[in-house]
Design goal:
Layout: E1 2-4, H1 7-19, E2 24-29, H2 35-45, E3 50-55, H3 65-70, H4 75-84, E4 89-91, H5 95-98, H6 118-121, H7 125-140, E5 144-148, H8 152-164, E6 172-176, H9 196-201, H10 203-214, H11 221-234, E7 238-246, E8 262-270, E9 273-280
Helix pairs in contact: 7-8, 10-11
Length: 282
Amino acid sequence: MILFKKEADLRNWLDVQQRKDRQVGFIPTMGALHQGHISLIKSSKTSNAITLCSIFVNPTQFNDRKDFNKYPATPENDIYLLEKANCDVLFMPSENEIYPIGFKDIHYDLGYLETILEGKYRPGHFQGVCKVMDRLLNIVRPNRLYLGQKDYQQCMVIKKLVDIIGFHQLIEIIVSPTLRENDGLAMSSRNMRLDKQSRQKVTVIFKSLCTIKENLAVKDIKSLKKDALIMLEENGFKVDYVEIADANDLSIINEWDGRRKIVALIAAFINDVRLIDNMILN
């Protein structure tokens, strides 16, 4: 595996490879890698000559500086996991490489997506996501971009960004299913911050989603959300939201016709660790 820390060095190397018409699969991450990330690496390896992973903890997408400071960093283990998965290239830039002196902020028109769910509870978060992804996509210019479904709304935001920056005909976006632990907990870098007691409780998020899905045919949307909220709060969670939305555009629904594809989404704190999860319901 080749490690690059400078944008110019990576661009020069990729220019040579892409002139040879070698296709590039790209997996952007913030490190603290787990098997969910590695599954994206493996998926890319099946379709691309070059699989490239980036690790950069992006400060602009944290609306809480304390959350940024607590974000887990495991660079040695990350490199080990990537080498074991036969990743071809790792890009580990500094903040100055991504946001050099003179970098100009752009406001991305994300419309409705920025006003709900994560956009509502983490103001500015998706502008920061777009800022870093705009930079990374312009540096890497991949043929395929690999994302995980756990960040459902973020995947939609990135698809919107790709349209905004005019890359929609250049980049194929592949969203892979959420990988889970044996007890159902969605794999996440933030799981590293859970103490033993919290780790035992967080399976309730997955159970809440399953309960919504199991009762979809017999209960109305309002009751499904209320039951899940009660289940979470009774187990010590501080809940930001339990919502059910159209799976294609994330418009929140209060009634369901039994046909449209819908998704349940949850964001909740256990102590000071905020976790998100979702489940396609039909």
